[in-house]
Specification:
Helices cover 23% and strands 30% of the residues. By secondary structure, the protein is of the alpha+beta class.
Length: 74
């Protein structure tokens, strides 16, 4: 899971700041990575991050799905 988190955090874009993370148990010994991030809306969009970086090679080897738990705009 550390390699997986490092793979996600390796994505660097202007307007993207990674925050704290934790592993949350889902069931049957399976865990999911929950990670906070801050996005500057004028510089990038969450859709671009997900489609262009997280669900393409080599990250799609580790990432099955992306779920936005909370979305706040200031």
């Amino acid at each position: 899971m550390k390699k997986f988190e490092a793979c996600v955090r390796a994505v660097e874009m202007q307007g993207l700041l990674w925050g704290a993370s934790k592993l949350v148990p889902v069931g049957y010994g399976i865990k999911k990575l929950t990670i906070m991030l801050t996005i500057v809306d004028d510089l990038m969009s969450p859709d671009n991050l997900i489609e262009d970086y997280l669900t393409c090679d080599p990250n799609n080897e580790y990432i099955q799905s992306v779920y936005i738990a909370a979305f706040n705009k200031i």
